[in-house]
Amino acid sequence: MLLIASLSFTAITSVSAESSLPLLQVSPQETESFINQFFAQPEVKSALKGAVVTVVHNQQIVFNKGYGYANVEKQIPVDADSTLFRVASISKTLTATAIMQLAEQGNVKLDQDISAYTDGLHLTNHTGTALTLEHLMTHTSGFDFTDVAATDRELESSYPLEQFIQDNKPSVVRNPGEVFRYDNYGYTLLGYIVQKQSKLPFETYVQQHIFNPLDMSDSHFTLSKDTLSKLATPYGAEGQELPQYPNVPDSSPEGGFITTGRDMAHFMLAQLNQGSYQGARILEPSSVQAMQTLDVSIHPDIPGTGYGFESTYSQYNHGRKVVSKAGDLDGFHSNLWLLPNEKTGLFIVSNSDGPDVREALFQAFMDHFYPNNKTHYSDYSVPKSSLRTYEGLYRDIRLPAWLYDISATEKGLQVIDAYGTHTLTPVKDMLFMDEDGKLAGFKKNQSGEITYFYYNKSDSWSEKLPEARPYEDVPENHPYAPYIYRLTQIGLYPQNQSLFEPEKPVSRGEFVAQVVGVSGMSISAQSPKFKDTQSSPYAPYIQTALELGIVQGNTRGLFHPDQAITRQEAAMIISRTAQQLLGAPVVTADLIGSQDRWAEEGVQFVVALGLYGPEVSISSTGAVDYRSKQPMLRQESSVLMYKMLGTLLH
């Protein structure tokens, strides 16, 4: 990106004008009228198969209603009191609650090395900093992998929590507490610690110490035949019915919580009443306060992470304290928001993928009931020379494929990411605001250098990457240089070699390793299924790709990892990756030239999205000759990989 070289200053001016209108009461009548109007909107009705919305206020359930169908084909309506929904990562708030209970009892200390509580489980720690329960609860573990690649399991299959923890152990590679990265494994590990310290199965502990006291009679962390019979049917983005699936592991402390609107109301009421519900206390007030303190943040003005809570859509908080938790699984999407000072809670869960109404609901709810107290910033000027210190390429910690390209402009900073181009205007030291009022923050290291960035991807920070060292055989004017050096920056190519060999064919194993590497998924620990990959350095990546469904072997069980990959084979792997991991649709393109029938879908996908470089020829009619059967060269692969990152994530 070209930088504007002239010196400039940027400023923002905001006029404070609080509304003098009285706040609307969160009463049963007003709330029902508002929620019904929201769900009557055509764009909301068409986005959902079924949903539950629950609102609590001043220790009362003021609204709890189901919309649409738990099963469309059978015309079973959603019942907010009895229809079960998976609430996915809201489970983490329950798991954090269990840890806080154990801390109150003196069974654990939040600031102690977790090795004291894991009963001999050994996790490799490459840093000199102890990993604590507090780090796990605030998603600052420093693990190299925090997500486990999903594998197909039968609904009736069993995967015990303890076995899952052993099978998927990550390593600590960053100083714990240094950087935020959403951590599913960390919360599964917390559930394992609850199990070890309480000497009860995790699901039994939660049942006895949270569900029973709060009268959450239809809440579960494991599946049973009775639970499945009441569980809403999940639906995909195209409206298709999805099969029910098991929890992995069985109790899934990070995402296995299944509940109703009624039961969620009881949990919210306890959180809004200092840990007590109708005389039953599950937490001391100090523990509730600690859970709801979102101080693990890149900047004090940006709500961060607490123990089991976070901040979703904080641009609509209107200056009020809001703690929340979101959850997403196939066919199920949920969110809860608590306004502790207003004694108000809002919860929604739906049973279909596709357009997401959660942000729209929260924005409308806050605009309707709590429109005042917006934060206003005074004029703040930053010289262009200072803005240049923020420039560079930033890579998301959790998803390496997600990149931010930041440059200084006359107005502040220009950010290019998968959502498009944004202008960030400085409002405080290390704090910026975009055109829609969303805040972005930066963090420096101990040497005073800009190190981390946080903006519109809520599940992790991004790290600033050093510039790539040049290869002797890739000069700046090389047609593929921009792609090669960007991928070198993000770690796809080694920096300890003087030559890149741009015209060398890419092997099948190397290409698969690159695709899996940018996914951010943990690498499979299973033995290689392909007979000829046993000794390959790419064997774990190939096995991971096989488990993800993005590669296949031949009929003899061979993969040929050292064989040069053809352009059509590479196209098929990219299209499968996009469909399996990102839900990308099938697309078509006008092709000329020759490709095998099995590869046509993949080649059309890559061509339709323009994932190619100058090696491809286009006819006068717009038809593309992808040169499908020729080997994929390293320089060509760099274009395919880089454009995939920018296009598929958008």
Description of the molecule:
By secondary structure, this protein is an alpha+beta fold. It folds into three domains: 237 residues, DD-peptidase/beta-lactamase superfamily (Beta-lactamase), CATH 3.40.710; 88 residues, Lipocalin; 168 residues, no CATH class. It is built from 18 helices and 23 strands. The strands form six sheets. The chain has an eight-stranded antiparallel β-barrel. A hairpin with a 6-residue loop joins strand 13 and strand 14. Helix 3 packs parallel to helix 6. The N terminus is likely disordered.
Kindly list the characteristics that best describe this protein.
single chain, 650 residues, alpha+beta, Beta-lactamase, Lipocalin, 3 domains, eight-stranded antiparallel beta barrel, six-stranded antiparallel beta sheet, 18 helices
In short:
This protein has 650 residues and is an alpha+beta fold. It is 27% helix and 16% strand. Strand 19 and strand 20 form a beta hairpin.
